[in-house]
Amino acid sequence: MNVIYNSDNYYVIQYPEYQGYEVVNKCARLGTFFQGPVAEKVSLSMAGAIDEDPSSEHLDEFLSDFGVLINFSTTMH
């Protein structure tokens, strides 16, 4: 497990052993998991967003575009 992005609003964790990424909207307390070919596309898109502008504001805006897909309730353990 590798935390690849962490801001006040989002975090993104890579799970190399599952070829997947978890994206969590901290404010909405919702998350999702991308795996396989979809995870590859998410990773490439995120890399492109970082190349455009690595600021947390830009990356948070990029991640907000996944809003409809980030729909699983999260709980703290």
What spatial form do the alpha-carbon principal axes imply? globular
Instruction: State the share of residues found in helices, binned by percent.
Output: 25-40%
- What's the β-strand tally? 5
Mean pLDDT: 90
What profile does the largest beta sheet have? 5 strands, antiparallel
Could you tell me how far the N terminus lies from the C terminus, measured between alpha carbons in angstroms? 17 Å
Using only C-alpha atoms, the radius of gyration works out to: 12 Å
Strand order of the largest sheet: 1-2-3-4-5
Which series of helices and strands comes N to C? EEEEHHE
Counted by DSSP, the helix tally is 2
Main structural class: alpha+beta
Can you walk through the features of this model?
- With 77 residues, this protein is of the alpha+beta class.
- Strands 1-2-3-4-5 form a five-stranded antiparallel β-sheet.
- The mean pLDDT is 90.
- It starts with a strand and ends with a strand.
- The chain has helices spanning 37-52, 56-64, and strands spanning 2-6, 10-15, 20-25, 30-35, 72-73.
Which labels suit this protein?
77 residues, alpha+beta, five-stranded antiparallel β-sheet, 2 helices, 5 strands, 32% strand, globular
Write a short abstract of this structure.
This protein has helices at 37-52, 56-64, and strands at residues 2-6, 10-15, 20-25, 30-35, 72-73.
Topology of this protein?
Blueprint: E1 2-6, E2 10-15, E3 20-25, E4 30-35, H1 37-52, H2 56-64, E5 72-73
Antiparallel strand pairs: 1-2, 2-3, 3-4, 4-5
